[in-house]
Amino acid sequence: MTSVQLHPDIERARHLAPDLSLDDATVLALRGAGLGAPVELSDRVERTDHVVVDDPRVVVRVHRPRGASGPLPAIVQIHGGGYVLGSYEMDDPRFDRWSPELGVIGVSVEYRLAPETPWPGPLEDCYAALAWTHAHAAELGIDPARIGIGGVSAGGGLAAALALLARDRGEVPVAFQVLECPMIDDRRVTVSSQLDGLLVWSRESNAYGWRAYLSDLYGTDVHYTAAPARADDLSGLPPALVIVGGADGFRDEDITYALRLSQAGVPTALHVIPGAPHGVQMFVGTAPAMQWERLVTDWVREQLS
Questions:
Q1: Least enclosed by CB within 10 Å: which of 120, 165, 180, 273?
Q2: What is the DSSP secondary structure assignment for residue 16, as one 8-state letter?
Q3: Could you give the dihedral angle defined by the CA atoms of residues 160, 282, 79 and 4, in that order, rounded to the nearest 10 degrees?
Q4: Does residue 3 belong to any structural domain of this protein?
Q5: Residues 25-66 pLDDT 10s
């Protein structure tokens, strides 16, 4: 089995990698502890929570640059956590920077988690948030023609699936999609998915996340909105950014998806950061983490301009 090759900065900071050895007990413990240390936020952003749907309850957090006049572009953002962990609070630090710097409104989705809520529940929560954002664009000060979607890891997988679902239903337009190390292929048959020494998100954790998300459908020929890598037709989707680390188990499935998007006529930017593991953003101050943030921010700025 081939071992993963990490960037020297990551090797020196590998002690920062969390232990995400997952089973039903550790998932509950990790949910209670939260992912990552609390971050002090500025007063440059107004944050308000809104109930999108009462039953099942779906909440979004709207991040708006303080004092900005609209209408502004918006991003419906979906947090990561392997479909089983995480909270919309994970998006607070990013929109604390992006909202004032890029003049964008963030709409972070608190979707239901697996295994308690398997597919399609979390995806339908994200669709409800996207539809709500369009329906309330005027009162939120949002330009309805400039609403993009984005997500990291499982959130990236949900964003990719949401783009497909929105295309298929034809009810709400999506201006662009930001897919950061998206978790999109339940089959786990690529070379990178079998690497030894994966930091943050191991082969075992990946298998647990997919089993939880797909429930009784795990191991079957699931629908492409459950695992977007299975989609036969990627035409008609919005412009995409796909970014992944060279030391991420998702590397090969994400590169393939970006290639297929481009072949289907979707304007697609692909970045592979050498030596970057899954969740490289948590290795603050390292060269791969800074490169990642710069590339994502610059691409989003271009979409919003």
A1: 120
A2: G
A3: 40
A4: no
A5: 899 999 987 766 678 899 999 999 999 999 999 999 999 999
Residue 143 lies in a domain: yes
234 and 266 Cβ atoms separated by less than 8 Å = yes
Domain of 185, in residue numbers = 8-304
User: What is the rounded distance in angstroms from the CA atom of residue 227 to the CA atom of residue 208?
Assistant: 15
Tell me, yes or no, if 153 is annotated catalytic.
Answer: yes
Lowest pLDDT segment from 19-23, 70-74, 192-196, 281-285: 19-23
Omega before 118 within 30 of 0, i.e. cis: no
24 within some domain: yes
Q: What distance, in Å, lies between the first and last C-alpha atoms of the chain? A: 45
**Looking at residue 36, what is its pLDDT?**
63
Backbone region of residue 67 per phi and psi (left: phi > 0; alpha: psi in -120 to 50; beta: other values): left
Q: Which stretch of DSSP H or E encloses residue 73? A: strand 72-78
CATH code for position 239: 3.40.50.1820
87 flagged as catalytic: no
Q: Which of 9, 248, 252, 254 is catalytic?
A: 248
Q: Whole-angstrom Cα distance, residue 107 to residue 93?
A: 13
Identified catalytic residue from 153, 192, 202, 205: 153
- The answer to whether residue 145 is domain-embedded is yes
Using an 8 Å Cβ cutoff, are 82 and 209 in contact? yes
List pLDDT tens digits, range 204-238.
999 999 999 999 999 999 999 999 999 999 999 99
